[in-house]
Amino acid sequence: MARSKEFEENVVLEKAMKLFWEQGYEKTSLADLVEHMGIHRRSLYDTFGDKHTLFLKAMDRFRTKINTELSGVMKSSETAVEALQLIINFMIYGEEDSPSGCLMVNSAVELAMRDSEVDLKATESFILSEQLFMDIILWGQRNGEFTSEYDAEKLAEQLHAVCIGLRVMARTSISKDKLHRIANTSINLFAK
Predict the structure, then answer these.
(1) How far is CA 149 from CA 87, 112, 130, 138, in A?
(2) pLDDT tens for each residue of 93-106
(3) Which pTM value belongs to this model?
(4) What is the CATH number of domain 59-190?
């Protein structure tokens, strides 16, 4: 008779996601995962497959979670400038009890050149982020908050590149004040 699972799959996947996010793929061993997730090695293999498959699932979970949070920020904002400022604050500070930086950015830097699946997932996530920025910029252009002198898609690409840099810098000892200055300068470049 088969044993029933003694854990909630989404809960342990969240734990794996945070561990990969904090340590990276290469540094995270199976022993680390088993200990951090609180499950047996056999359960890890039976539920998630191997370490690489678990990592890809963790990337999917991260993308879904972050996109949901950022879309919520956009919908709850009264202005496009407010939406950008809240999203950038999120990128600088992250959320409570989460590692700094961004799992997608970290994974792209660590693995994308040699792992096509990681490259694809990171690239898809970046495209979604750029689309969110473009939606906010278009909103701001319609409302007169942002200049219409530049194409919203190009501004979104530029802002996304700045935000990737912010996510990397957030993992260092660089002051949050400096990160805010960089972000505000970027927003001011296309604000009216």
Answers:
(1) 23, 35, 19, 12
(2) 887 788 988 999 99
(3) 0.90
(4) 1.10.357.10
